[in-house]
Amino acid sequence: MNSKIKDEHTDHLFEAILALDSIEDCYKFFEDLCTVPELKAMSQRFEVAKMLSEKQVYSEIVKKTGASTATISRVNRSLIYGSDGYDMVFKKIKEGKK
User: Fold this and answer.
1) What is the pLDDT of residues 12-62, one digit of tens each?
2) Is 19 in contact with 11 (CB distance < 8 Å)?
3) Which of the 8 DSSP states describes residue 24?
4) Cα 69 to Cα 59, 62, 83, distances in angstroms
5) Buried b (16+ CB within 10 A) or exposed e, 53-85
6) I need a surface site. Which of 5, 6, 45, 85 has the fewest CB within 10 A?
């Protein structure tokens, strides 16, 4: 766990996210919470992480997502050296589709 982000305010935010029941709920909440560029950046990073985890190459990721190679490199570092959050979510999504 990254102690740099852990605090009471972040806990409240995550509790709010966990209270959401549907994709429609997520759209409503995140549209109020985030600017369009913030949400687009997060969704782009998540798509990049998914593609990297599927062993797709940088050039294909750039082409499909429009992400810069710097963004792809940052996401790749998170996949390799991070908290395994992406992998945890990918596994949960995959298990949910069974």
Assistant:
1) 999 999 999 999 999 999 999 999 999 999 999 999 999 999 999 999 999
2) no
3) H
4) 8, 7, 22
5) eeebeeeebeeebebeeebbeebbebbeeeeee
6) 5
Cα distance between the two ends of the chain: 29
Query: Any idea which residue has 């979510």 for tokens?
Result: 89
Is the pTM higher than 0.70? Answer: yes
- Residue in the block written with tokens 């990918």: 90
* Token digits of residue 94: 């995959």
Surface-to-core class of residue 38, CB atoms within 10 Å of its CB (0-12 exposed, 13-18 middle, 19+ buried): exposed
Q: What is the pLDDT of residues 61-92, one digit of tens each?
A: 999 999 999 999 999 999 999 999 999 999 99
Amino acid identity, position 78: S
